[in-house]
Amino acid sequence: MSPSQFGALQRQSSVRVGVGQGRYLLRFESLFHAGRGLCFPCDERGEVTLDQLSEQARENYLFARAVVGHEYATPVVQRCDD
Predict the structure, then answer these.
(1) 3-state secondary structure 18-73
(2) What are phi and psi of 63, to 5 degrees?
(3) Widest Cα–Cα separation across the chain
(4) How many C-beta neighbours within 10 Å does residue 48 have?
(5) For 19-57, how does the pLDDT look when each residue is reduced to its tens digit (9 = 90+)?
(6) Spatial CA neighbour of 27 closest among 12, 11, 42
(7) Quick check: 24 and 79 in contact, CB under 8 A?
(8) Residues near 15 by Cβ (< 8 Å), separated by ≥ 6?
(9) Nearest CA-CA partner of 80 in 1, 27, 33
(10) Can you tell me the distance from the alpha carbon of 41 to that of 37, in angstroms, rounded to the nearest whole number?
(11) How does residue 14 score in pLDDT terms, banded at 50, 70 and 90?
(12) Measured between alpha carbons, how far is 71 from 54 in angstroms, rounded to an integer?
């Protein structure tokens, strides 16, 4: 993956948590770009419901999981503030 493709992936992967979704986010922090990463709505255990993600978000989520330790740090669960 080229740096430009990686940057485009990060810009496209913004997922907003709305009413009815979990109050937690699973965050994959970039190992190479401080302050950047991918976030996905999840439950308190970090489980993401794939059926609730858009096709693009689902692809980004599966990619992030596949490159943990190479592109992204081990994901962490973050509670969303109201």
Answers:
(1) CCCCCCEEEEEEECCCCCCEEEEEECCCCCCCHHHCCHHHHHHHHHHHHCECCCEC
(2) -65, -50
(3) 37
(4) 22
(5) 445 599 999 999 999 999 999 999 999 999 999 999 999
(6) 42
(7) yes
(8) 25, 39, 40, 41, 53, 57
(9) 27
(10) 14
(11) very low
(12) 22
Q: Given strand 37-42, what is the order of strands in its sheet?
A: 37-42, 24-29, 76-79
DSSP state of 80: P
Answer with the residue of higher pLDDT: 71 or 8. 71
80 — phi, psi (to 5°)? Answer: -85, 135
Backbone angle region of 46, left / alpha / beta, with phi > 0 → left and psi within -120 to 50 → alpha: left
| pLDDT of amino acid 81 | 80
